[in-house]
């Protein structure tokens, strides 16, 4: 059975370089070097011992992804992109469907800690909820996707990151596109009781 030294020798690199690949530290690595190491791993049928790595670091090479439902096409697309990005760094993605239920969110967080996962993406959720804040205070790194995070006391002073689209710019681009296509009577439809932010 091949080991990390065999991979390094086959690829013509140092053991530490192979280790950098296995641990996702490839930002400063040339693409041809990375490709050569990956090819050597495949040729030698080398699989890193993830159990040993987790015992050593207390963390797993996995990312949690929490979505309301993967049936929603937008979340299905998100899952695909997250998975592709994770694979480039030899990470796996654990997906949880919450159906917007607090009990499901809490159970998912418990499972992530149990599996050594220390980073999750929460899609269209509120990570200022107590169970998310508690997980963050215990070392879980979280990114809120598609939901803006206003600074509030709910986060308990913790640094909780968020990524969201610019809905105003998206609306402008959509409107311009319709006008360019000859549309002159436009209608904006939204959920009852919800109105866009007023902008000067």
What features would you highlight for this structure?
alpha/beta, 434 Repressor (Amino-terminal Domain), Rossmann fold, 8 helices, 5 strands, 44% helix, globular
State the helicity in percent bands.
40-55%
Q: What gap, in angstroms, lies between the N and C termini? A: 66 Å
- Looking at the overall shape, the CATH architecture of the largest domain is 3-Layer(aba) Sandwich
Order of helices and strands: HHHHEHEHEHEEH
Largest sheet: 5 strands, parallel
Under CATH, the topology of the largest domain is which?
A: Rossmann fold
Q: Tally the helices.
A: 8
Average per-residue pLDDT, rounded, comes to 83
CATH class of the largest domain: Alpha Beta
User: Number of DSSP strands?
Assistant: 5
Count of discrete domains: 2
The low-confidence parts are: none
| Beta-strand content estimate | 5-15%
C-alpha geometry: globular
What is the strand arrangement across the widest sheet? 2-1-3-4-5
Structural class: alpha/beta
Radius of gyration: 22 Å
What would you note in describing this structure?
There is one protein chain. The chain has helices spanning 4-11, 15-22, 31-43, 50-57, 73-88, 102-114, 130-137, 167-180, and strands spanning 62-67, 92-97, 119-123, 141-145, 161-163. The chain has a five-stranded parallel beta sheet with strand order 2-1-3-4-5, sandwiched between helices. With 200 residues, the chain is α/β, with parallel strands linked by helices. The model has no long low-confidence stretch (mean pLDDT 83). Helix 1 crosses helix 2 and helix 1 packs across helix 3. The protein contains eight helices and five strands. Strand 3 (119-123), helix 7 and strand 4 (141-145) form a beta-alpha-beta unit. Helices cover 44% and strands 12% of the residues. It is globular. It folds into two domains: 4-48, 434 Repressor (Amino-terminal Domain), CATH 1.10.260; 59-165, Response regulator (Rossmann fold, 3-Layer(aba) Sandwich). The protein starts with a helix and ends in a 20-residue tail after the last helix.
